[in-house]
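Hey, I'm writing a tutorial for new members on how sequence and structure tokens pair up, and I'd like a real worked example in the thread rather than a made-up one. If someone can provide the structure for the chain below, I'll link this post from the tutorial.
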Amino acid sequence: AVSIPIALKISHYFSSLGQMIQRLSQTGVSGLVLFNRFFSPDIDIDKLAVKSSFVFSTPAELAMPLRWIGIMANKVSCDLIASTGVHDGEAVIKLLLAGATAVQTASALYQKGPEQIAEMLNTLRAWMERHNYASLSDFRGKMSQEATSNPAVYERVQFMKYFG
């Protein structure tokens, strides 16, 4: 047993992800980090060799943590921390609106340097001023599945409607 706060970083590779997130949140962890991004190899088809590739996340990878934080916000017994695909201040705002308690970024710092943190914070502050928010708690979770007027936007039915 430990007395320090523990966050558990998980992947999205569970067959019943929502249920697993709920169960893990009840273990006493302080937070769940959604999601761990695994190293993905690539294959050089001319040299017939496995090589390093896809080292950094991309902004397109934001969709997975955004969706699951939005779905699970206010349904768990711990903080939800967003990770993967966080490259700018707009991503930070989206994840906080979905219900994230905190946001992690790494690839953006490797690619753009530590000054990217200041840029993200400036974007967040400017947005908060434009929308008259004094603190993060004023808008955290405002666009979660539970808080939105159309909860189905977080479900697969949206995919079917798009192609229907």
